[in-house]
Structures are given as C-alpha cells and as structure tokens.
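Incident log, support desk, overnight shift.

02:14 A customer reports that sequence design results differ from what the structure should imply. Their input is reproduced verbatim below. On-call engineer (initials T.W.) acknowledged and began investigating.
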C-alpha cells in the first residue's frame, strides 16, 4: 500500500480528516466539473453538500475520515502523485500555530502556553485543542490553521496538548485603531443609490441586515456559497436606494469572517453580487 495512503487511513481511524497534498505541498485543484466551485463546493467531511464529485478536488473541504473515500479509485491517482498527507485541523477539533522561523518560535515561547510541538522544515507547529478561524500572517512568520484550512501531517509531535488559549485567539483580532475587522482591507463599496426606496422605517433595513447576519452565522456547510447568496439577497432588496451604508456592510463582513471567511473572499463575494445585479 502507498505509504501516504497508509498514514492517511491511520489518521482517519483516529478521527483526523485527511487529504493528499501534491508537489509544492498544495491541495489538488478543481476538476473540470468543479472548476471555480461551479458545483457549489464540498462543504464538509461527509460530502453531504451539493457537490457529489468523488475526487479530491476541493482542498481542505475534501478532507475526510471515511476509509472508503480515502482508498477509493477516485483518489488513487492523487495518492500516487502525493508528496505528503494533509489534514484539516478544524475538522479534528484542533488549531495549528504555524511558526515559520526562529524569531517566530522565540516569540511563541515568551507569549504562548506550551503545548504539543511538531518540527517543520523551517520552524514548528504548535498544536492546541480547540478551533478558531484561520488566518495568515497574524504576526511575522506566523499563520493560524484551524477551520477552513489544511496543514501538513509531520508526525504526532512531542509534549502535552493544551486547550486553545485566548492569546492565540487574540492574534486574529484587529486592533481598534484600524477599521472594524470586516472593513480592514475592504476594496469594494456600497451602492450609491438612485433607485426607489423600499424602507418605510429604519427598522425594515435593520431587520433585513439582522436576518442576513443570522443566515451566515447559522451556516453549517457551504459557507462560501451562503455568504455570496446572502450578499446577493441583501443587495437585491436593500442596495438600490442608497440606504445601505458602510456600517451595514461591516456587519455582514464581520458575520462572514466569524465563520472563517477571509476579507478577500468577502470583497470578492460582494463585488460579484453587485456585478450580477448590474450595480
């Protein structure tokens, strides 16, 4: 049996969702049917969403603990080409603090509680019990890999795993001196108006935004798709008269980021929704 496949099956038996990683330590790209997530994406480890692709073409969202999928003919070619095994930390209830150099490691020793440690090519992975939103470059040389992300499996590591501390969660919180997290890096804007106003009272708009926030926060799968469709619905209903403000947009972006979406994806989803509506 392929060495990487053997490792993947062993990890899956321990409840760790796995996937093969190709040359460059990246995931395998979308197949033609799923290109640009035209299929709706694969939202969770049990493949229960709109996508029924049997292959391994949805990055972290393809990670699974199902042995029949991992060892299936549809994944066989990927395992033959794989250079290592990847896993979805969030799906295993974990968070990986990826320390990419000696300076980052030195900072972690002074700022974070000790936990299980795994050596990497250039640094270390510190693994905590608990999940949070993933983020890159939270400090120089430091990435957070948990929900909606993948990490390389480099062995079990050493040391006792501890609970995810507030000090790690705080790394992804934007400083108050900048804009609200949802607006940090925003490159799109709200519509300028010009259409007929449907908002008889401010409560109508506020209720619509609150419902949109709730829809995003309650999404248990296909988060990318849910965010886009919610933005589309908000803009369709509230975006043509000029009543929709940056503050409303910030609330929607914050709800999406709380589910693990990046600012870039929020920007793209908002801009795509406006384009679809001709705004």
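02:41 Re-run completed on a clean worker. Output:
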């Amino acid at each position: 049996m392929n060495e990487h496949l053997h490792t993947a099956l062993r990890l899956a038996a321990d409840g760790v969702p796995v996937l093969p990683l190709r040359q460059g330590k990246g995931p395998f790209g979308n197949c033609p049917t799923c290109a640009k997530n035209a299929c709706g994406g694969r939202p969770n480890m049990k493949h229960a969403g709109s996508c029924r692709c049997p292959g391994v073409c949805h990055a972290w969202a393809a990670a699974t603990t199902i042995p029949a999928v991992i060892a299936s003919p549809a994944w066989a070619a990927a395992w033959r080409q794989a250079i290592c095994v990847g896993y979805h930390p969030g799906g295993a209830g974990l968070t990986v603090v990826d320390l990419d150099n000696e300076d980052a490691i030195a900072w972690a020793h002074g700022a974070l509680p000790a936990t299980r440690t795994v050596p990497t090519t250039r640094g270390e992975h510190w693994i905590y019990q608990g999940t949070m939103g993933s983020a890159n470059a939270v400090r120089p040389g430091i990435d957070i890999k948990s929900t909606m992300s993948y990490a390389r499996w480099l062995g079990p590591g050493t040391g006792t795993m501890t609970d995810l501390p507030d000090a790690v969660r705080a790394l992804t919180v934007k400083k108050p001196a900048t804009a609200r997290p949802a607006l940090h890096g925003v490159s799109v804007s709200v519509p300028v108006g010009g259409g007929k106003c449907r908002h008889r009272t401010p409560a109508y708009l506020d209720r619509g935004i609150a419902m949109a926030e709730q829809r995003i926060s309650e999404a248990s799968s296909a988060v990318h798709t849910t965010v886009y469709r919610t933005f589309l619905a908000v803009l369709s209903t509230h975006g043509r008269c000029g009543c929709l403000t940056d503050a409303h947009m910030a609330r929607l972006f914050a709800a999406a980021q709380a589910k693990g979406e990046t600012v870039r994806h929020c920007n793209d989803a908002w801009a795509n929704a406006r384009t679809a509506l001709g705004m």
